[in-house]
Specification:
Blueprint: E1 9-13, H1 18-29, E2 33-38, H2 43-50, E3 54-57, E4 68-71, H3 80-87, E5 92-94, H4 95-103, E6 107-112, H5 117-130, E7 136-143, E8 149-152, E9 158-162, E10 177-180, H6 194-206, E11 211-212, H7 229-244, H8 249-258, E12 267-272, E13 275-280, H9 285-298, E14 303-308, H10 313-318, H11 320-324, E15 332-335, H12 345-350, H13 353-359, E16 363-365, H14 369-379, E17 384-389, H15 398-401
Parallel strand pairs: 1-2, 1-4, 2-3, 4-5, 6-9, 6-10, 7-9, 10-11, 13-17, 14-15, 14-17, 15-16
Antiparallel strand pairs: 7-8, 12-13
Length: 410
């Protein structure tokens, strides 16, 4: 990795983000001294500390002997550590800039798209591992087969990464092979039109050596453990890309059959009052519909209670009608407070959780995690299914409702 030659000590600001933590783990595995900070304590903070990475909660000083500072784009430009790095003339990179520099030294395979990136990257990572490619894989979720981590560090020159379109960040990557799963409007706080959003993907494709588009892929016909039509499409892309890399069909089929899913993607967590509890990252109408369809497919007789935390006021307002129509497979819907992220006062004035609940049949808005937990504990019965969905902190609800043997309770 030519760019990082001469650097020994790397400081991460926002180290516990899903991408940042993966990159921190990568550099530690490659022999760099890694340390960093995050604004709040989390499970990922504790995991990194247990792995020997120095993580401090709260932002403060940057040691003078740091050679490079990498920061999350969620960190504001007036962050004290960024300012300190500038004063000390320490080079700084965003997460995506750093990932791009890392990837320059590898044969790069990337997965992009509005939906399904993490699952497809995980699927392909497991196929390539089974085929003996010994890849490095950086993915936006935890994968059981990777030690329940968001990274696999291999010894070959092949790297597989999940490529995010937000702020055109994937343009820091120049893939040798790129799979684009789908292109559907999202990230409305940055992209102001579908044409602009689509153009970003075309730009990414234009700087890639070989591209597989959605229309180049047919539905996967092999056996899968994970339910849902969307997972058949994810598997089809993973299989197609694996074939491009000359992986035998038998290995593709075997790896996909054994794939059991990943963290927060229709993940079974336990029971609550006898009801099955699942956790899912769905935060876009298409994802909600796909996840509920998978839930109905897997548990056709269950009464499905969907608990959804809208992510961003801007997204909720722009896709309001689509959100209102995306819960058809749910028997009851609870709308939590909207999770604010990069929203303006204008965004917050345009929509509310109450308005969204009013637009959805059999829905109600309940404010506050504890109130939602108490409501569920009072109303759930044997044979029900709870599907907790959202990209914010709604996953924190789950330990509050699990039966004895879980990790929490109200």
């Amino acid at each position: 990795m030519k760019f990082f030659e001469g650097a020994n000590k790397i400081f991460f600001v926002g180290i516990a983000g899903i991408g940042m933590s993966a990159l921190a783990r990568f550099f530690k595995a490659k022999g760099f001294e890694v340390l960093g900070t995050d604004s709040t304590e989390s499970a990922l903070c504790l995991e990194l500390q247990a792995e020997g990475i120095n993580v401090k909660i709260g932002h403060g000083e940057v040691p003078k002997d740091v050679d490079l500072l990498i920061y999350s784009e969620a960190v504001p430009q007036d962050n004290i550590e960024l300012e300190r790095a500038r004063d000390l003339e320490i080079p700084t990179l965003t997460y995506f800039e750093a990932l791009g520099k890392v990837a320059e030294s590898f044969h790069l395979v990337a997965i992009a798209g509005t939906h399904g990136k993490s699952t497809t990257t995980s699927m392909l990572g497991l196929i390539l591992t089974a085929a003996g490619f010994d890849p490095t894989v950086i993915v936006g979720t935890k994968v059981k087969e990777f030690g329940n981590k968001n990274i696999r560090v291999g010894e070959s020159d092949l790297i597989l990464v999940e490529a995010c379109e937000y702020r055109r960040n994937f343009l820091h990557l120049k893939p040798d092979l790129l799979g684009i799963l789908n292109v559907e409007m999202d990230h409305l706080d940055y992209f102001k039109s579908y044409e602009d959003y689509e153009k970003a993907f075309q730009q990414f494709a234009d700087q890639s050596r070989e591209v597989v588009w959605p229309e180049d892929v047919s539905e996967y016909e092999g056996e899968l453990t994970v339910p849902g039509e969307h997972n058949l499409l994810n598997a089809a892309m993973a299989a197609n890309l694996a074939r491009k890399l000359q992986v035998p069909e038998q290995i593709i089929a075997s790896a996909l059959k054994e794939f059991s899913g990943v963290w927060r993607r229709f993940e079974y967590c336990g029971t609550s009052c006898g009801a099955l509890v699942y956790d899912d990252y769905a935060h876009h109408p298409t994802e909600i519909m796909a996840t509920l369809q998978a839930a109905r497919e897997k548990h056709p007789e269950a009464r499905i209670v969907a608990v959804f935390q809208p992510h961003q006021y801007s997204r909720t307002a722009a896709l309001f009608d689509d959100f209102a129509e995306s819960f058809e497979d749910a028997d009851e819907v609870i709308i939590a407070d909207i999770y604010e992220a990069r929203d303006t006062d204008e965004d917050k004035a345009a929509v509310s959780a109450e308005k969204l609940a009013d637009a959805i049949p059999e829905a109600q808005h309940i404010s506050g995690m504890e109130k939602i937990a108490h409501y569920l504990l009072d109303t759930l019965n044997e044979g029900d299914m709870v599907l907790v969905m959202g990209a914010g902190n709604i996953t924190n609800l789950i330990p509050m409702i699990l039966d004895e043997g879980g990790v929490g309770g109200v």
